[in-house]
C-alpha cells in the first residue's frame, strides 16, 4: 500500500510501476490525475513515472508534510492549486513539457501533447479546448510540438474567456436573444475568432487553427 511506497523510498528504491499504482490507489486518485503531475513538479522528478527517494522526500518537504497521511490530506488542495495561482500554473505547465519527453527528445509527439493539454487545460474551461484538440490530432500536419509552441498554447488559452464566464456574463441577456439560436459559448467563440490578430506573435499552429475554426464556423 502507500506505506510500502514510502518504505521503498526510505530504503532508497525508486517508486515506479506497481508501486506508483498502489500509491495512487491509497491516495484515492488515478495516475492520470492532475495531482500526480503537480506532485511530480514539487518532487522535481526527472523521469515520467519514476519517483526516486530524493524526489519523494523533496516533494513532501515542498508541500510541508512529512507523512503519507499528510500527503493524502493535500490531494484536493493540490488538484486545485494551479488554477488558483497563474504563476504556479505556468510553472507546472512548463515542467510538464520536459517531464513528458522521452530521453534525447526535444519535441513532444502531438498525441502525447494533446493528452497533456486535456489534463492541464480542461480545468480552465477554455472555450476552444475541444476543437483545438480535434485540430491538433486530426487536421494539423504537425507531428510534434516544440517547447515554444507548447508555452504559447497556454498563453492563448489564458487570453480567451472561459466557458463558465461566457455563460454567466450572457445569462442576463439570454432572454432577449433566445430566438437567435446562438448560445453564450458560441458567441464567445465567435468573438475570440473575430478579435484574433492574424499578424500577432502567435505560432503557426495557432494561426492555422484559428483559420480552420473560422472556416468551420462559416459553414454553419
From TrEMBL:
Mention any one GO cellular component term assigned to this protein in its UniProt record. Answer: ubiquitin ligase complex
Question: What InterPro entries does the record point to?
Answer: DCN-prot, DCN1-like_PONY, PONY_dom
Q: Which Pfam family, an example, fits this chain?
A: Cullin_binding
Source domain of life is Eukaryota
- Per UniProt, the ranges with Low complexity bias are 163-179
Q: Which GO terms describe its molecular function?
A: cullin family protein binding; ubiquitin conjugating enzyme binding; ubiquitin-like protein binding
Function text? Neddylation of cullins play an essential role in the regulation of SCF-type complexes activity.
Species in which this protein is naturally found: Eimeria necatrix
Q: What is the lineage of its organism?
A: Eukaryota, Sar, Alveolata, Apicomplexa, Conoidasida
User: Which residues are in the DCUN1 domain?
Assistant: 1-214
What the entry lists under PROSITE patterns is as follows: DCUN1
A biological process (GO) of this protein is: protein neddylation
What ranges does the record give for the region Disordered, renumbered to this chain?
A: 162-186
* Annotated protein name in UniProt: Defective in cullin neddylation protein
